[in-house]
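Risk mitigation, structural track. In case the binding assays with flavin-adenine dinucleotide fail to produce interpretable data, a predicted complex structure has been prepared as a fallback.
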Amino acid sequence: MRTDETVLIETNRRVNEKYFKLTFLSPRLARGVKPGQFMQVKITPVFDPFLRRPFSYFRADGKRVEMLYEVLGRGTAILSQRAPGSSLKVMGPLGKPFNAKAKGKKRVLVAGGVGVPPLVFLAETSKADYLLIGTKSKAEVLPKRELAKVQAKILYSTNDGSYGTKGFVTVLLEQLIAKEGQENLYIQTCGPTVMMKAVMEAARRHGIPGEASMEETMACGVGTCLGCMIKTDKGWTTCCTEGPVFSFDRLECAHAGH
Ligand SMILES: Cc1cc2nc3c(=O)[nH]c(=O)nc-3n(C[C@H](O)[C@H](O)[C@H](O)COP(=O)(O)OP(=O)(O)OC[C@H]3O[C@@H](n4cnc5c(N)ncnc54)[C@H](O)[C@@H]3O)c2cc1C
Ligand code: FES
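Fallback model:
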């Protein structure tokens, strides 16, 4: 059940060149959470920055919540400076999660950037077959300890070829489709919009079903501000309450020409 509470930051430290990890204790915010759901976080107790920022659950074990985040702008830069012991206002869990099963199909999770946290959470808590992670370079690859509980086979791509396969994560995806056969796969993706569009385009070409977690700007997170509207098969809808996870066939941007 959704809750909005003030928590105390337990830890908040850099994990690698790309990510910070923040943890806090809250049985209410950690209970019953499913991968793909998110939180709305008030970065400071003061008015500025005014709007909350959305972050996926990276882990929730019943009492502790973990967030994995990238510093992209002012809000996340301030968040990275918040010290353990200081307070944070957090509302969650919000939104609709990923499917934990895909009957008779092998599940391929395709992650990049801020899409890595929810898909690692999904891979840790459900039986996925492959986790494909695309980064710019080796320095951005998550340390092994953060992936130790993932049972899926993890494959990496880096733009500069410094780790795993050289190229975008869709290179890995195409290799996997060729190996496993398109009729056997179900794709779940989260990451930069341009990456997800390429993944959905490959899925469409091969006739592979799946779902994507869409990253619209979210101010309220609960369907009232209408700031996160997204075009679907049933017209415009709020990404925060109807998503953020949508099946490919519901998304306009998954179809050719977009
Ligand atoms: C459902 C959902 C889950 C998310 N989960 C995570 C997560 O687990 N970890 C994480 O690091 N980030 C996550 N994000 C993205 C995160 O919300 C943004 O990075 C953050 O709001 C940026 O705030 P800022 O003040 O630092 O940047 P701003 O100053 O608001 O923006 C700085 C830059 O970041 C870009 N940006 C802003 N919002 C987003 C966005 N939603 N997606 C991609 N780029 C954005 C802007 O275009 C701009 O270039 C998630 C977003 C959504 C919608
Ligand atoms: S974020 Fe306000 S309606 Fe979705």
